[in-house]
Amino acid sequence: MFSIAVFTVAAKSIVAASGACAIVYKGYQMMPGPAAQLKLMKLFKDGNVYKPIKRIRSNATYEVKQYPEIKRVGVYEDHTQLIFSVPDGMNPQEITSKLWLFKQGFGERIDLTGDSKTFNLEIYKVELKTFDYYLEEIKEAVKGYNLPILAGKTRKGYIVYDMCEHPHLLVAGETGSGKSVQLRSILTTLITCASDKLELYCADLKRTEFHLFRGIAKTVDIEPLHLQTTLLKINKELVRRGNLLDKHELSNINDLPESVRPKYIVLAVDEVALLKKEKVIMGIIEDISAIGRALGVFLILSMQRPDADILDGKLKNNLTVRMAFRHADEINSRITLGTGEATHIKQSQKGRFYLSLEGLRQTQAPYLDLAKAKEILAPYKRLNEPKISNTNKIIEVTDYEVLEEVSSDFIEFGVLDNDNER
């Protein structure tokens, strides 16, 4: 009888303890960090985010699903952070292409960044806010960068990168999305923060965006033939810089002695899609995208509607940074980003875009109106600058293969001087 009583008491104690543990575990599950971790694991399973591994047992083949591993969970005042890694051999695009999956689980206010192995998912409590362009604040933010591109702000603060490290930028978005203001902001930052080591060339084929930079840029071309002339000169400069690196047995112009180091060249082309029939122009642009980084020559290309014929494999792959403002449909968004996220930006969210740079994050561009930009850029204007080009200097070439036959009399090596606005 005694043993039965002891057993009964012990059993009741175990049941009570089990109940207490269940309550504690339930409470643990409801804490922000563990709850986010459990939700992420569920998303991996629901979205089939795993690496399949085939195993054999008793002459029968079966599949084991290896899911990403959550390395760390952090809960902060304004956001929750989840760091996870994918199994070796798993394509990281299985993560980056499924931003929609993480939004289904955690909502719209998330950022997903990472590399080929480790990813950082951040879930925020507050929405992104619009902000104005303040030059002094921006100068402070871009200190230490050779060729600073101020992309905008996330909820953590300014996003700045060095074009020398991440060459060639694509900015795309429909009318009214904020694309034009972003171009204005990016070029204004480059001019005010890197003018001593920069040569800027602009092409404004719609004649609506780059008039602001006349008298500052070396050229503002408004006709394809004028742009072709500029590009032929830049093409010769690419050859010269390559020879200079060979002479010094170096691989990047940043490593050259300062006495012979040429300035960076940035070519900004608005509505590059209008050039898709221009074989010579597109040939040189593709060459710049392929070899420009080492030679200090960089592209900023923009378009309202992404064109798959323009953004073919070679050029698209070399545009290492992309800013996708609101897109009209998922097809266009996928051409720009590889995902459909840019279609989900609301029309009311002016200046909002997805930044594709070591992952995908939602970013807010600064607002810089035209009058303020003119005021900021006034000290950089050259005086008495002609506003149209001397058309006698136009070089007409119909075939990209004959570029080397163009007379070098038209080409000025090194700093491309004495070019008027066109």
Automatic annotation (TrEMBL):
Origin superkingdom: Bacteria
Q: Which Gene3D superfamilies does this one have?
A: P-loop containing nucleotide triphosphate hydrolases
Asked whether the keyword Signal is assigned, the reply is yes
Where in the numbering of this chain does the FtsK domain appear? 156-334
* Keyword Zinc tagged: no
Q: For binding ATP, which residues are annotated in this chain's numbering?
A: G173, E174, T175, G176, S177, G178, K179, S180
Q: Pfam families recorded for this chain?
A: FtsK_SpoIIIE (PF01580)
Q: Which GO terms describe its molecular function?
A: ATP binding; DNA binding
Which keywords does UniProt give here? Answer: ATP-binding, Nucleotide-binding, Signal
Segments traversing the membrane: none
What is the protein's name according to its record? FtsK/SpoIIIE domain-containing protein
